[in-house]
Amino acid sequence: MALSGIQIYKLLPRTNCKECGFPTCLAFAMKLAAKQAELSACPYVSDESKEQLEAASQPPIRLVTVKANGREAKAGNETAMFRHEKRFFNKPGLFIRLYDSLPVDEIKAQAKEIAKYVVDYVGMQLAVDGFAVEATGDGETFAAAVRATLDSAVRPLILIADKADVMEEGLKAAASAQGDEVRPLICGATAETWESFATLAKQYGAPMVIREEYLDVLADLATKIKDMGINDIVLDHGARDLSVAVAKQTHIRRLALKKNFRALGYPMISFPSDCVDEDEMSPLAAVQAIAKYAGFVVIDGFSPDTVYPLLALRENIYTDPQTPIQVQPGLYEIGEPTPDSPLYITTNFSITYFSVANEISGSGQPGWLLVADSEGMSVLTAWAAGKFDAERIAKSVKSSQVAEKLNHRKLVIPGHVSVLLGEIEEELPGWKILVGPREAVEIPSYAKIWQTM
Predict the structure, then answer these.
(1) Is the pTM of this model over 0.85?
(2) Over residues 177-196, mean pLDDT
(3) In whole angstroms, how far apart are CA 46 and each of 31, 43, 50, 102?
(4) What pairing do the DSSP bridges indicate for beta strands 410-413 and 71-75?
(5) Pairing of strands 64-68, 118-121
(6) Nearest of 318, 349, 396 to residue 129 by alpha carbon
(7) Short-list 185, 173, 100, CA closest to 136
(8) Is residue 285 situated within a structural domain?
(9) Please, are residues 388 and 350 in contact by the beta-carbon 8 Å criterion?
(10) Can you give the CATH number for the domain in which 195 is found?
(11) Is the pLDDT of residue 409 over 80?
(12) CB under 8 Å to 18, separation ≥6 — which residues?
């Protein structure tokens, strides 16, 4: 149960030492209650109080990790209903489902294709997190499918089976294939089978999914499993309809965050492909799952055309809305520039940088790209905020020592900030300031006439 600020204050040393960074212990207690401070900031809290406070300050949604040989997929530890309130922390794991009814060679081929898919998105490498292997037959067939998957690519696993004896064969196969570093997610326990699945989860140290349509029964099952000593639980509300699924996921999230209902304070798993009748609707269902609180998302079939937008959407939702995606300021070589190549300048907003860099690269004219520190803002936003002005531009030029690499003294500024031309010339005497294109797509045409300027 969450403690109030006053209750937390009574457990603190109340010395007002200020070593936590707050003026009084009461102020620190209020921040702890609002989950805006860490208990570790207080160096003098007693062990007894620490135990009580740590239990009360646990995130309302438990963190669950699925891993395999250094790769991890994490879900949970969320504290907000809406991204703008604070931020979302752990991106939902995206898993591709493989059925054990497929021939072993086909399973291997699919696993290899999925594993090698990596796409560059504004400087970040995006990829599918893992595989969900589902049993349709006996334990031996299931184990063979698990081994075939892991022989092809080592990724976090979700093992799906209705029967505990079949699940155990899959767990044995995973353990023998990867050794002690494997930690798959066991999926398939119901109100009738939870005890046998919980025994396996405890034996193999694996997190487990429990599936139940009624939320009161789901909460009761989670409590019973926790009482067995299994803390890493994932919830499957059983809905296989888009509208019902989003309603249940929202309700569970709200109960966990707003009511601090610990029995449902666990990440959720979603099966978007099971919620629609047409394959074409599956990506839409996956979008809903990613946007509305699923911790693990299992989709059928792999296609770059489908996976890429899901990965990009996930990245956008789970970035900190108060911290723009940005690249490191500095001087970048695009292609193999020479001392006679053009010098461009832009801001360190990631999308701006990659837009400009890609157009310079595609122009056939290598260039130098100087990236100024604009605190992650785009050109116009940074200019309006005073983060991309003549002084900062001049400082970037001087600190980069780019003049030592060039035979010329020409600097191309974005067309959107042409009003800075005179000021920059004053800040950089001896330099010729050129006004470049307003849009990055115009850079290839501009590069052809640059030398005539």
Answers:
(1) no
(2) 86
(3) 19, 9, 6, 58
(4) unpaired
(5) unpaired
(6) 318
(7) 100
(8) yes
(9) no
(10) 3.20.20.20
(11) yes
(12) none
